[in-house]
Design a protein that fits this description.
Order of helices and strands: EEEEEHEEHHEHEH
Structural class: alpha+beta
Strand content: 25-35%
Oligomer: single chain
Radius of gyration: 18 Å
Largest sheet: 6 strands, mixed
Strand order of the largest sheet: 2-6-7-8-1-9
Amino acid sequence: MSEWSPDSDDSFRNDEDFAGGDEGEGVARVVTLAPVALRLTPTAHPRAPEGHVVFRALGAVEGELSDDSPVLAQGSLPQPTFTAVQEVGLFARPVPLMLTAHADEGGIRAVLAALVPVQELERVERATLAAEEPWLASASGASAPAPFEEGEGEEGGGAPPLVPFALGVVLRFQENRQHPESLDDEAVDLLATILSGGAMDADRKRVENLLKSL
């Protein structure tokens, strides 16, 4: 069983999320072999930061993406950035997913991220700038981003470089670990659990654990 963190950080290019835990602590990274269809849907949350949109990332490994698709993660974005993601169509096509995990107080703390073309993320940045500072965006040409074309690379050929776009923090509590002796195996199992729809809200999981202990 995996759990979403109720205190997810901003998802937009938060590179610190991928640095792991304490210095010297091991980090495991797992990437899906096939791209996953994604949709970010806004959801109400009692601890939503002011000016942010809390979202749930719905995903489909196979078949059509629908409102009944598994919730893979929960995160938050500033309102202008969330709007830009939708307008640019960052997840119009399926994308690979990467889970970056490290041990945390006996359990596992991980970040689930989508791997997106850097050009597409730059379009989101420009669209966000255009919404927040229209005069600055106009001066820098951000109001008319060039469309991304499949197969376009830095040197005119090959696949474009991919960068992580964090979807949310995922926790696995110590009592739910499946492979306490192997961080790599734990990360693989955690990602498989997430993709199969086995995640639940961390607050709800804590309540269930408390009731089981009574």
